[in-house]
Amino acid sequence: MPVDICLIRPSIVVPAKNITTMFTPPLGLAYVAGALREAGYGVQLIDAVGESLDTRHPAPNDCHYYGLAPAEVVERIDADSNIVGVAFGFSFEWPACRDLVLAIRKRYPDKLLIGGGEHITALPEQSLLESGLDICILGEGEETAVEIAGAYLQGDLRPENIDGIAYKGAGGEAVINRRRERKRDIDAIAWPAWDLMPIENYLERGFGFGVNRGRSLPVMASRGCPYQCTFCSNPAMWTTRWIARDADLLLDEIEAYQEKYGVENFDFYDLTAIVKKSWIVDFCRKIEARGLSFTWQLPSGTRSEAIDGEVAALLYRSGCRNMSYSPESGAPTVLSRIKKKITTDSVVRSIRAGFRQGMNIKCKIILGFPGETFREVLQSYRFIIRMALAGAFDISVWAFSPYPGSELFAEISEERKMTLDDAYFDSLRSYADPSMTVSYSEHFTDRRLKALRNFGTVLFYGAAWLRRPHRPFASLINVARGRQESRSEMGLINVIRRARLTGDAD
Prior knowledge:
single chain, pyruvate-formate lyase- activating enzyme, globular
């Protein structure tokens, strides 16, 4: 079949001092590719990461590109394709993605260039005016991409009539249409087109979002999140409607991947996988009823309220081994300001229940929210110790960053009159790069916030290892054997791998 549309997942940008470098198959782009192919269009998918997993290039600001070089990506575009679509990753990668689109525009001035993803949805005007894009897809991309392709290939593209996009008007200005309604029947969406990318490169190494537990593929059991945390871009990207898939149909897909690809582990990419206790209980029981055997993980973070002793036991028996909780803070006043509707007691109870069943649990804390005080940080420290003693295995103590599309980003950008230049986007890696911490709390300097997050990490592992002194030794044995049970072990193995890449380059 001739290629109508070429979809591109660019190389990822990784800070040189970042501990975890996760090479993940691009689930969102695979879904779009599947929808386009189901509609009858010829699709080429260039996964710049998957096609060159062991390649690293220097990038600005003490970072690296992992994957194909931009020039190699442009060279691989099918010259006969009419449309090129680029998936934009994290906002701190915007400058690299923008430059790739500009290179594509220079090489192919007559192709229709479209972009999508959370960054595009959050900043469509800048995305259009600073790159070579013709159209930005806002929010879910499958239906919108199919509509754009159909109209353009039939010579009848009228962007003003397509919901869920931004485009350049007659005078070169950005025009933003109304948002497309969320698709309610998500089981009707075509399965991801994994066969269009080098998926075996990921599978043979166990690469994915979660801990390496063998040949792994990502799946999505639900879309959206019903909560409105002020630091999260989800409401802008997905809205606050949470829609779960039919458990049987999801398991049909999982079984198909086991048969076709020999998959042993599934990483759930849901924003909030466990919202309704009834759904997760039904899903776990159906895994057992079918006699299926695989491990699965919730690496993105999930809510704790529905995970009691009964649910934790079902999760473990059905193969769930790793979970992440994202309570963000231990200070009730901070939780209220960021609209995080949890209680620290419920999180600790849930961690304890999961630990007793054998689950490996990671927790995520954010320090440096606007207005956060030292007293509130101390409350988070107390919470960190409680989580460690309850059985949590790992923690990430991040620095708050105002991500585009979030409520706090809108407030801060207005108050500070922020310039959304390359320096700002580079600063967004502060959340995960401990060497570069930027404080948005008036009570902490950058240097002090960096010290506070480092101390929070030491506090957690100190408490966890004093309570269970065998853990660090067990982790070292796992790393020496190349095994992973926890996210910290995954991080150590990544550091060793990157050191070897550096040695090979030298």
